């Protein structure tokens, strides 16, 4: 077992809709500095092979582009949900993970619950673990800076409602200095960039908003 303190699993999920089960899941396990010790990526077999459901997915075209290529190149597998959850639990134990993080954790937490209910796996996390929404953390640290707000307005990273964008794509653009970065919206790719965002947040050495989920953090930046 890894005994390093504060090991974090940063996960991302892709679903067909807000109330649908997960078809793509990926995660990294890393320390607060973003040093990755393990990563995982899988397509949920029961969901991804459901053609009627997948044609309704927001990113349905990726089935024939990104995912077909990854499957052909054996970069990803179709894995039953029970096996995915078994691997997730095993890695949490093996690496002594004590924090679960995601950008907009409320969405991923809900998606995990829906999938568990749909496929009958019961409770996914079987031991106490801290919950950390990286969207909240980012908005409380570097996205709330004058520098970010000025750049976002300059680059047009503003919603139709006139609010400065605070999504993971905008955060990563600012973090890397690449204003043209586009999220893949595949689970492991997104989890990897969120791991870098996580390291940036922790480097601020500010109060960590454990357990603050669905708190509309975009309001912090747009206050």
Describe it for me?
By secondary structure, the protein is an alpha/beta fold. It has a domain at 7-135 and 184-206: 2-Layer Sandwich (Nucleotidyltransferase, domain 5), CATH 3.30.420. The chain is built from 10 helices and 6 strands. It has helices at 45-48, 51-54, 66-72, 81-94, 105-119, 134-140, 146-155, 168-176, 187-203, 218-221; strands spanning 7-15, 22-30, 36-44, 78-79, 97-102, 130-133. A 6-stranded mixed β-sheet has the order 4-3-2-1-5-6. The longest helix is centred in the last third of the chain and has 17 residues, at 187-203. It is globular. The mean pLDDT is 93.
Largest sheet: 6 strands, mixed
- The helix count comes to 10
Instruction: Flag low-confidence runs.
Output: none
- Gap from first CA to last CA: 44 Å
* Class by SSE composition: alpha/beta
User: How many runs of DSSP E, i.e. beta strands?
Assistant: 6
CATH architecture annotation name of the domain at 7-135 and 184-206: 2-Layer Sandwich
Quote the CATH topology of the domain at 7-135 and 184-206. Nucleotidyltransferase, domain 5
User: Which sequence of strands runs across the widest sheet?
Assistant: 4-3-2-1-5-6
Gyration radius over CA: 17 Å
Q: Helical amount among residues, as a percent range?
A: 40-55%
Query: What is the global morphology?
Result: globular
Percent of sequence in beta strands: 15-25%
Fold blueprint:
Blueprint: E1 7-15, E2 22-30, E3 36-44, H1 45-48, H2 51-54, H3 66-72, E4 78-79, H4 81-94, E5 97-102, H5 105-119, E6 130-133, H6 134-140, H7 146-155, H8 168-176, H9 187-203, H10 218-221
Parallel strand pairs: 1-5, 3-4, 5-6
Antiparallel strand pairs: 1-2, 2-3
Helix pairs in contact: 8-9
């Amino acid at each position: 077992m890894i005994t390093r303190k504060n090991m974090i699993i940063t996960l991302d999920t892709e679903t067909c809709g807000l109330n649908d089960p997960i078809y793509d899941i990926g995660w990294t396990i890393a320390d607060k500095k973003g040093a990755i010790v393990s990563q995982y990526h899988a397509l949920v077999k029961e969901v991804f092979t459901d053609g009627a459901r997948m044609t309704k997915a927001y990113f349905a075209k990726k089935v024939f582009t990104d995912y077909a290529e990854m499957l052909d190149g054996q970069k990803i597998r179709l894995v039953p949900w029970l096996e995915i959850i078994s691997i997730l639990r095993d890695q949490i134990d093996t690496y002594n993970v004590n924090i679960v993080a995601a950008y907009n954790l409320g969405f991923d937490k809900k998606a995990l619950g829906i999938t568990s209910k749909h496929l009958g796996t019961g409770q996914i996390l079987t031991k106490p673990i801290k919950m950390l929404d990286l969207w909240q953390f980012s908005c409380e640290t570097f996205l709330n800076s004058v520098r970010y707000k000025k750049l976002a307005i300059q680059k047009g990273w503003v919603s139709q409602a006139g609010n400065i964008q605070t999504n993971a794509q905008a955060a990563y653009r600012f973090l890397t200095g690449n204003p043209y970065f586009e999220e893949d919206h595949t689970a492991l790719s997104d989890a990897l960039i969120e791991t870098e965002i996580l390291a940036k947040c922790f480097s601020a050495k500010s109060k960590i908003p454990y357990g603050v989920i669905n708190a509309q953090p975009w309001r912090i930046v747009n206050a």
